[in-house]
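Hello, quick one for you while I still have it in my head. My current little project is about how a certain protein chain folds up. You're getting the sequence in one-letter code plus the fold written as tokens. Would you mind checking whether the tokens look sensible for this chain? Here's the protein in full, and shout if anything looks odd to you:
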Amino acid sequence: MRKVFSEPTTGSGKRSLSYGEYGNEKVAEWRSFVTFCFGHLVSVSSGKEKRHGVASIKAVPLEELARGHCLAVKNAYRLIKDGEVLLNDGRYLSAINLFRLASEELAKAHMITNAAVFEESDQKGWGWFWRSFTDHREKLKILEHELHRGSYEDKDEFHRRITLLRQQRENALYVELDPTSKKFLPAGSMLESEKDFAELEYKFICGMIKFFMPTGLPTQEVMLQVYKHRRGDTLQRSE
């Protein structure tokens, strides 16, 4: 069996994350992992829901959810590989933003996994899914609060760090205007070291993709089996 992960760096010092695909022998591992993920994401769809018309509450077929999950994961992987090229070339600000986009694609894949348990008649659940799929705030909620909040005893410190991290990521992308000095600031002006922050983002996204995809790049057939198993478990518990 070929190795799913390669080390993030090669002998030449260049960053290179490598994935292999897997087949049906990995279904059991994915079932266990998806069960763990649902424990983290069970609260995501709670709260007030907005109405967006009939189209927003249509159920997505399980087969299409499996396909969408794979597309999102592979797109995240593509963005990471492109970011590696920029990071190795010293184009740190651009690399930071590709890694950020990759993390949002992984959050999107997790939303799809969360939707796999919704019955066709679950208007609240599907309403949340259609609204959240293109909502950056929901993706940030998954990336930040759902995955990291539990590891912080000091919740105020957690919010301070998350706010600072979000500001630094935004600063790496945009030219800003300081309201105090009334001067324009170049992209990356908040960062003490563009290189160090890019390396930090790279380390984060490598750890994140291993967390989301512990057994390698998913295939549609495997994810469909996993989703069917998970939906069956959910229906049994609700009876």
About this structure: The CA atoms of residues 9 and 94 lie 19 Å apart. Residues 1-11, 38-56 have pLDDT under 50 and may be disordered.
